[in-house]
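ugh ok fine here u go
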Amino acid sequence: MTTDNESPAEAEARLAEVIEEYRQAPAKALAARDEGLREVAAMGLRQVDIIRLTGYSRETVRQALKPEARAAVKKATEQRRAAKQRGAEG
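structure:
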């Protein structure tokens, strides 16, 4: 909500900030969760126990504990999507 002291341009700039923060929220939440899971694993909690306690899948916990695994899965997914799109265009 704008006040009498704010111009429409300032309000629009603030709105853009709010929208960008919202868009970044899932990535920030994922990073925080993964950091927490790595922390408890470093404290000695086994992967199987993390799975049991959180209800997350084995793959989700594996990717959280090994960021390089998430990067590899993301890259493979992007490659499959690109190949599928090329196939649909051709």
